[in-house]
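DM from R.C. (forwarded with permission)

"hey, sorry to bug you on a friday — could you get me a structure for this? deadline for the figure draft is monday and I only need the backbone to look sensible"
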Amino acid sequence: MSEQPKNFGFGEDETMLRDSAQKFFADNCSPDKIHSQVAHDPTIHRDIECIWDKNLWQQIVELGWTAVCVPEEAGGIGMPLVAAVAIAEEAGKAAFPSPLISTYAATFALKACGTAAAKAALGDIAGGTATTLAITNEKGSWESADTDVTVEGGKLSGTAYFVQDAKKADRFIVSAKGANGIGLYQVEASAEHLNLIADGIIDLTRDQAHIEFSGTDCVEVAAEGAGDVALDAAMPSILTIVSADMVGAGEWLLQTTTEYAKTRVQFDRPLGFFQAVKHPLVNVMLDIDRTKSLVYNAACSIDSGEDDTELNARMAKAQASEMAVFSSSRAVQFHGGIGFTWECYVHIFFKRQMHNHVLYGDAKYHRAKLADIVIGKAA
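My reply, with the result:
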């Protein structure tokens, strides 16, 4: 086990990448643009939509963002996880509608496979192939061995649920149960005998679906018995990248609410003058700082090859989920009468936070997992 570097391994290259992401989102993803893009229709019974700018996706591919964590031998840049975390944080701060976070999650799973097919798939991701994981059963379990999909003779049958950014994806990485255990399989979104059914979710910046396979052709990227092992190895990175997205959204909610509290006057005083407003905002700031420290610590521990990566990642996700709820609720409350209206931009970030809050498990789930880890070690 190597020792963690200073500043979580966040060096000049990572700083430049983060700064370029900040500029990209400032130029292309202002809150009013995102709101007009994804929240143009407030009708409750509107059709389920998948709204995103494919041109912006192509631009971030050209900037090399999808290749950041792909190894150089697979055609990527081979940067550490903290680099992707920095991008994910900025994406959350902009509520960026794209399959970027899902593609990062698939990248981590493929890296853990270690097969020639997985290496080829990683090269495709570096080139811009949007890829997402289809690994969850109908009950919503995030356990690596829980899948309702089976494989036999190179064909998949069954249904994968809670598939993130499914309509944006070019390819799915599916976990399926075979005679010798769980394997991972690559399926093209255009494949025959594949039926994608969109789910209605609160997050307007993303889409979700369940996918039915009925004798669907696939390519094996992790053999039977190795798929769940790869997912377990990838899970700390997946949890860390989702937590980074929540840090960014929390920062936007805090900054926006603080500015509102400075300018909104009540009883001849700015709202921020009153302790009932400024003290909870300080608590939000502390919550975000705690989360950010845990997220970068988790990323750095993964980059450094430490033994406690799962522990660190689950700590980060547990804290991030709690922070997401707290930052969102304070933002709505302190915006007063306009805070819960459709026209106020807060609801875009609120809904993204609520979706991330339960994605891959909420705070209670991860604290239960942490208890198992710590008690198991103590025993």
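R.C.: lifesaver. Residues 121 and 294 are 30 Å apart (CA to CA).
me: no worries. The chain has a mean pLDDT of 94.
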